[in-house]
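#struct-pred
JK: can someone run the complex with S-adenosyl-L-homocysteine? inputs below
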Amino acid sequence: MDLSVSIFDLIFLKFQNPMSQLQRIAIAPSQLQQGQILLTKEQQHYLERVLRLREGDRFIAMDGKGKSWLAQLAGEQAQVLEPLLVETELPVSITLMVALPKGNGFDEVVRCCTELGVTCIAPVLSDRTLLHPSPQKLERWRRIAAEAAEQSERSFVPTILEPVTFNTSLSFANSQQYICVARGEFPHLKDCLQHKGQMTNDIGQETIVIATGPEGGWTTPEIENAIASGFQPVSLGRRILRAVTAPVVALSLITAACEV
Ligand code: SAH
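RT: done, structure tokens with the ligand placed:
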């Protein structure tokens, strides 16, 4: 279930764009009707009182689903002037499956991977996961994702799924699926990605799924199950990375391989 829209109703973060000085606000897709954005009371307050915009002033409205518009304040509404070209999104869709790390480590994973362009994050309960998160945690991660998306000028707020067990999450089956394994003789992720020569052509539909394990690593049955579900085991290099570092490295390698 994607609750991100309800978050947009609550969060109106200010972002100062150094190029255009235009402010951005997040809107729910349903607020856009016939070329008008029907502003909520909170949004009107934010635009007029906090940002001090006046009638006729322009700002950027983003729906968190990849679309944004140049809009002009007109009373309780805003007039859509033009759709804006999305230039900050990756040409591939990346789903990151992360075994929940200890403490607040997942906050950092959500923040960094959102900055790096992830599309969807699936928190995973693995055999060696110590943490079983509360529903408040999920809300917190979604808020962090929304903030990080605005900060990094993305027009898409990543979806944070409800935590699921690793075996359930294996059914996210897709054409390019990798499981990062810290020890063993596995090919490097960067070499696997480079072999996908057609990746840059047929890019719109392409989805990459990548899984990283907890502090204690994946158990052997987990790795075997993943392989049986079509995941390719990969290395992220010769050093053992922390559970919080591994997803950031994996995301960086994917963006380096597929961004033109
Ligand atoms: N304690 C484990 C390592 C866990 S590291 C051990 O000593 O073997 C946490 C997770 O980060 C791993 O499950 C893996 O998914 C990922 N990871 C860390 N370093 C990696 C590497 N060099 N290559 C691939 N994955 C790595």
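RT: quick notes.
The helical segments are 4-10, 41-50, 105-116, 135-151, 166-169, 189-195, 220-228, 245-258.
Residues 135-151 form the longest helix (17 residues).
JK: thanks, will look after standup
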